[in-house]
Design goal:
Elements (H helix, E strand, L loop, with lengths): L10 H16 L8 H25 L8 H10 L11 E7 L8 E3 L4 E3 L5 E4 L3 E3 L5 E8 L16 E2 L8 E4 L12 H10 L10 H11 L3 E10 L2 E8 L7 H11 L10 E4 L3 E13 L4 H9 L4 H10 L8 H9 L12 E6 L9 E15 L4
Parallel strand pairs: 10-11, 12-14
Antiparallel strand pairs: 1-6, 1-8, 2-5, 3-4, 3-7, 4-6, 9-10, 12-13
Helix pairs in contact: 1-2, 3-4, 5-6, 8-9
Length: 375
């Protein structure tokens, strides 16, 4: 798709226009060193910046280029609101070392944290009954966003608001469910598909649109008709997370509303099927690059982590070891990352998946490296 321009922003062409206009106004040629030409040359960057700003402002009227608040305004016109951040949740255990004879009241809003950055608070008042050593209660992140997702069991172990007799706290469930404010690209796609909503014929685009609107954590959805009159919707959440019963119920409610579902359609919702895979590979690097190469490939957020996220983040994505090979051999050079010299991948093997199956890493990884030239 070509880049749309409302006005010319090419610096060399603007230079010719500015200098030409000056020479025409002076009715003579302006040679290098002439103060009038020097003035014109100094004006060119300002004119280029101004023209770029005007061009950008004009282009943002188009959905293709809009961003930020302008995109929000276009979404309002289409009746599509940007998804707001969703707060992460977990279950927190409040414990005493020795049982006491009185109940311990844990007020609603009691805060706990893992690092004094991510804070959680209880969603209701909990009671540690006399004679018991612990009580579990739901907690929710104080701030919305995906940052707390993945905090390990036991990591939220600091009680911020002191409760008499409580000796320790810890989360019993891995943190999850948080999502960031919807990014421009995904929001733009939802606005674009909103045009399907005006139809009452039950097209796939309509059901997909309302599936994505059901919950901020829903990243994609497949819509199919396994039999006449039956519509099957298969959603998936961001990061390849399999939607739980709560999310499935939201999608069903959103897509089967009377003003969405044609009278003859029977809407069903199911979670994606899961195909697991192992990782087994050996990569080669030089002695001088060994440390940086290990970090690029095996470190947190490295090639393996990126592959696991990419492979499971979308429906209708075959298990593809070549993408893992690319991440290992050709990382993002702009970030000054060091890739491997060579890689041998035994697992995963390429496998075709149907459009309602998502690939997820089994948790089994056998990764080793070899220094090239070593015996």
């Amino acid at each position: 798709m070509s880049d749309l321009k409302f006005i010319e922003t090419n610096a060399s062409e603007i230079y010719e226009i500015v200098i030409g206009a000056l020479e025409k106004g002076c009715d003579e040629d302006l040679y290098p060193g002439d103060e009038r030409r020097i003035f014109g040359e100094a004006m060119v960057p300002l004119v280029v910046a101004l023209f770029n700003a005007v061009n950008d402002a004009c282009r943002q009227k188009m959905l293709r280029y809009a961003r930020g608040e302008v995109l929000d305004a276009l979404g309002d016109n289409a009746g599509v609101a940007r998804m707001t951040p969703v707060k992460a949740t977990t279950v927190e255990r409040f414990m005493v070392n020795t049982p006491i004879s009185d109940n311990i009241i844990i007020p609603k809003g009691t805060r706990v944290t893992s690092d004094y950055t991510n804070y959680f608070e209880t969603t209701s008042t909990a009671v540690l009954v006399s004679g018991e050593t612990y009580v579990d209660t739901d907690v929710v992140a104080v701030a919305g966003g995906s940052e707390p997702n993945g905090l390990a069991i036991g990591s939220i172990n600091v009680l911020v608001d002191a409760i008499p007799f409580i000796d320790s706290v810890a989360n019993t469930v891995k943190v999850g469910g948080g999502s960031d404010k919807e990014k421009d690209d995904t929001y733009r796609d939802r606005i674009r598909t909103a045009n399907d909503v005006v139809s009452v014929a039950g097209p796939p685009g309509t059901y997909k649109h309302f599936a994505l609107e059901a919950d901020a954590t829903v990243a994609d959805a497949d819509v199919s008709s396994p039999s006449p009159g039956v519509v099957l919707i298969t959603p998936i959440c961001y990061g390849g997370k399999i939607p739980d019963e709560n999310i499935l119920a939201k999608v069903l409610a959103s897509c089967s509303a009377d003003d969405v579902r044609p009278l003859t359609d029977q809407v069903k919702v199911k979670a994606p099927d899961v195909e697991t895979y192992d990782i087994e590979l050996t990569y080669y690097t030089t002695e001088s690059d060994e440390s940086s190469c290990i970090e690029t490939i095996e470190g947190s957020g490295g090639a393996i982590d990126k592959y696991v996220y990419w492979q499971g983040a979308s429906l209708n994505r075959d298990i593809n070891p070549d993408y893992l090979r690319k991440l290992i051999l050709v990382p993002n050079w702009a970030d000054n990352l060091t890739g491997a010299v060579r890689v041998e991948i035994a697992k995963p093997e390429y496998k075709d998946l149907n459009k309602t199956t998502v690939a997820q890493w089994s948790g089994v990884a056998n990764v080793s490296h070899v220094i090239t030239g070593s015996k």
